[in-house]
Specification:
Strand content of chain A: 5-15%
Radius of gyration of chain A: 22 Å
Number of helices of chain A: 17
CATH class of one domain in chain A: Alpha Beta
Shape of chain A: globular
Number of strands of chain A: 10
Oligomer: homotrimer
Structural class of chain A: alpha/beta
CATH architecture of one domain in chain A: Alpha-Beta Barrel
Distance between the termini of chain A: 43 Å
CATH superfamily of one domain in chain A: Metal-dependent hydrolases
Helix content of chain A: 40-55%
Largest sheet of chain A: 5 strands, parallel
CATH topology of one domain in chain A: TIM Barrel
Largest interface: A-B, 41 and 54 residues
Chain lengths: ~425, ~425, ~425
């Protein structure tokens, strides 16, 4: 009845969820150095540099040429301008949780102290484990280049995920072809040898515990079944360093995407589709802060791939917040479409709450993949998950308890599916 | 001030609305057999089969070849996977309201008992009346094929509505032309005779108490005034079974749509526009669960028809939830555009609440058509209307009372317009 | 935690905001006659006439040929049909605040009394000042034609803003060219002389305290850098009264828009972009009630102009409510994009609240331009700002206090930035 939930119930739900381990199905963590050893690795997260830049900070103040301390101090001067944002709240939660900070603000008055207390160079790998334990992170998925050797860490904790953007979107770049040939030991000169080389990548990743393949695709990408015969010539040309026309580049992309989907099908590997970014739309932005989107996207464009690969699970993230309702409908109809977290520009409590409420009302509870951190450093997993868990607690208290009369136990059962059981099941190896 | 409404007030508003008769301006009820006589007619509703299928149930488990009991038992095994959805809540409300169920869950443990208690074969038409009385349904609109004889039931309770999808979208199919010729007793070989035949359909429906004409249109349909002279040849060709090009099919559709709008104008019949479905986008789905939409639709495409027929009332439903705000604006400016209920993928409390709040704030109160059930069986009318009434109660308690200081009486006055007075007035015969 | 704010806190926040002066960065106020001297100037606001017309009132009942009293009485009969709308609530607040009205409804029973009490013909300019003082309006921006002499009023209170729609969108109309030539004393026959003439307009406006340049652009406008050489010929043709093709009109528009952006850059003048209206889409509507929008717009189209003019501040308003989330993302990345108020069809509490919540969560607090009245008469500034302030109070109470644990002082600090400090700073002259 849209009666209002009490704060107490939402808080109780949140506290219960906070006891559960975190299972994080998408991040950009470096498994060789998962936690931050200098505060600059925290403050360098693109959310802070891009928001500070948006508020007026010259990009040069966080130039990679500068000393990390200098970058931190420069940025700190601009943090008050963004202290209203949810991103800033993650920062405050990090310094309180991990660095014993007791103040309210990260700014010029506290930056020196924070640089000091966040210096973990000497702690090294022990610090990685400490952050992971404090955060109660059971496992976190990585984003691995196709030529990552995948050795040197525990792949049951830092789980490999094959990122395929380079193969699909940049095959016309010589560097990508060289990396592919070098890593597979395979001459790659035509469609057939390309397919063989990609197959070797999948074998390599399968042998090292990969749980998902992933790609981010621009708004104008349309994944239709490629005419393989017509694609053969432009692919041979591009693999041999010859020029191709823009329409041929598009055809090559569609073809490589389709081949990768075929391998996902063969290996029963979920294929994360992250739909929407326009890369480098603001070339003068700070590093990591140059991409946006065109809101005119529709999953109708993706129906051909959902139909063609009914056995492949497609966890889907859309970038434009107003596209969230469509993802609910496609997840409700297509058995192989899973609504996957709340991505980037959609990862803001007001958009999370709206999407989550609709998913809870209209998507089978076994299909909702609650959240992934998208973090570059381990410290961000906890505050980002906590933002999600707080929002989920609010949605359950309001939508399920106040409006539909559920018990707390039933709410927590759903929450556990969304946060823990579903990602484990959906990304499980057969 | 966005202060929060108390649960008690929302509940009080809901209870008051629940006393009112239901006037349901759109359904797919079969007037010869309005209520379900086997539980399979309840569980067979596409919402349940498609959501269960989405959760992993093979489509073959609800094949029409199977015995109804078997279909029920098969589906019941998958219902726990969708017990979070609002659609599942309708099911629980139905078995409690109509079948004396006292449990919490419809699943394998309760399905046998429910098949038994929902067996109304022997009760027959008495059951229809019982469901209608229990639900307090005053009248419900039907969806009639153009060649429905419209006899054998009380058309003041089960009100005829002329559905024109076949005529507009499928005139190139021989079966449709044959039905048209057979029913009107009119040779249909060219534009002129087509117009005459359609005129006879309108006369027939007018003679049997029709209150609306209706059509569902795909996202790429653009209702511009057709060049009748250019349309004559492809229409003659198609009516004589000859081939037409895709662009000619599009021209034929626009032309027949326009002719139907002209007859609505002549007969002062409201023309329900249901905008957005892409049919059969998921061909391997269960029956009734194969359609979705492309969110890139705009009512700007419909301005030509709103301008051309100022005397025709157009109750409009849009399918993509994110298109709801645009419908508010078009209803606010065009006197002949009426926001009509909350359709299909938009028929979820979170989307209903958002749309309803905006309609209550910005559309003349005399124009808001609250809700229609879209039901196939009479049992669904009550739980679906109750979902709407609960949501409306919440919106009124929050938006009108807490934020704008209205009295309960004023809220109920608006609710009665939205739920009862407006649909009666807007669909009244002159 | 989505716990619910108490009504008391929202009310306290609202009351505090109400003490602050209003700084209104966009209106259509006539500085020579800012307040209404006849009630018809209040009731004639397009919101009332268009909503009443939408509810069934024939447009002729508010024809400009009629006596103002008659128009008022005619319209009053239709007001009960729109008394649910937020726009109607502004009307009630106006008559209570400024005309001593103690009733609840503006309708046929009260209209005679209101015409009398709102007659300020004899009070004249004293009434203007009285309304401004009662409303606590510190300054309000105007919308000035390019050939406005800008004299005869205090430009520190009624601040000039150069509106450029005519120059950009209507240069092919002889009347516009004649006005431009007459006002600048400059023969305007080619691209070079056009640029000179526009430069003179900017000099004139700069000399009279202009604080912004503004334009409203249709959904299909794409501001790409124009090929100046190719544009020269069609511009010469159009300036000499010769015919141009539609694609040439588009090129001329892009070119003039670009020249204006260059002058904004030269003079460091903010350039308000108001994106989305389709003009005259409903030609039979009442005056001011004929425009709507196509929701398929994206700020991605505007990236070229944001990139080309990094020193120009672009306060951006989008018309389609569902485009609001995209504006949040573009304001978060581009330093020169500022989310500007809540415009026209988006100016409804439910849309304001959704946009505002996201802006508060994800846009630097120094960049959020809270609200502008868009008013034609001074009396509307207060109730429209109050609708915004109430909504802001609700968002702060819920989002910042209940969910994020902020203090009242911190909430009010943010509110003051949004309402007062930011518009003053962003539109300040260097």
């Amino acid at each position: 009845m849209h009666a209002s939930a009490t704060p107490d119930i939402a808080r109780e739900l949140f506290q219960a969820m906070r006891q559960w381990p975190i299972y994080d199905p998408h991040s950009h963590i470096d498994p060789h150095r998962p936690a931050a050893r200098h505060f600059d690795e925290i403050l360098g997260y693109h959310y802070f540099t891009e928001l500070a830049h948006s508020a007026g900070m010259p990009a040069g103040l966080v130039d990679t040429e500068l000393h990390p301390d200098t970058r931190c101090k420069n940025l700190a001067r601009w943090l008050p301008a963004i202290d209203n944002t949810v991103q800033y709240s993650w920062l405050v939660e990090i310094v309180r949780e991990f660095h014993g900070f007791q103040g309210d603000a990260v700014d010029s008055s506290t930056i020196d102290q924070l640089i000091k207390s966040a210096d973990k160079e000497s702690a090294g790998t022990a610090w990685d484990e400490q952050v992971r334990k404090l955060s109660n992170i059971e496992a976190v998925f990585l984003t691995n280049d196709f030529d990552d050797p995948l050795t040197g860490w525990d792949t049951s904790v830092y789980i490999p995920c094959l990122r395929t953007d380079d193969l699909v979107l940049k095959l016309h770049e010589p560097r990508v072809r060289q990396r592919l040939a070098a890593f597979t030991g395979q001459e790659v000169g035509d469609l057939e040898s390309l397919r063989t080389a990609i197959g070797k990548l999948f074998d390599h990743f399968m042998a090292h515990g990969v749980r998902a393949c992933a790609i981010s695709l621009p708004p104008d990408f349309v994944p239709e079944p490629p005419p393989m015969i017509s694609a053969a010539t432009p692919i041979r040309r591009v693999l041999n360093g010859m020029d191709v026309r823009p329409d041929e580049v598009a055809l090559i992309r569609r073809t490589v995407f389709w081949i990768i989907a075929e391998f996902c099908n063969e290996h029963r590997l979920p294929f994360d589709l992250m739909i929407g970014p326009i890369r480098n739309i603001y070339p003068n932005g700070v590093a990591g802060g140059r991409d946006l989107f065109d809101r005119r996207v529709s999953l109708a464009d993706y129906a051909p791939v959902f139909n063609a690969f009914p056995k492949v699970k497609f966890p889907v993230s859309t970038l434009s917040p107003d596209a969230g309702a469509e993802l609910v409908a496609y997840s409700w109809i297509f058995p192989n479409v899973y609504p996957n977290g709340h991505w980037w520009y959609s990862n803001v409590p007001t958009f999370i709450a709206a999407d989550l409420k609709a998913r809870v009302e209209a998507v089978p509870k076994t299909k909702i993949i609650g959240y992934y951190s998208d973090a570059y450093k381990l410290e961000f997993v906890l505050p980002k998950f906590d933002t999600f868990r707080r929002t989920l607690a609010g949605v359950l208290a309001q939508s399920c308890m106040a409006e539909r009369g559920w018990s707390i136990e039933r709410c927590l059962g759903l929450a556990k599916d969304i946060l823990v059981n579903n990602p484990k099941t959906i990304f499980a190896r057969d």
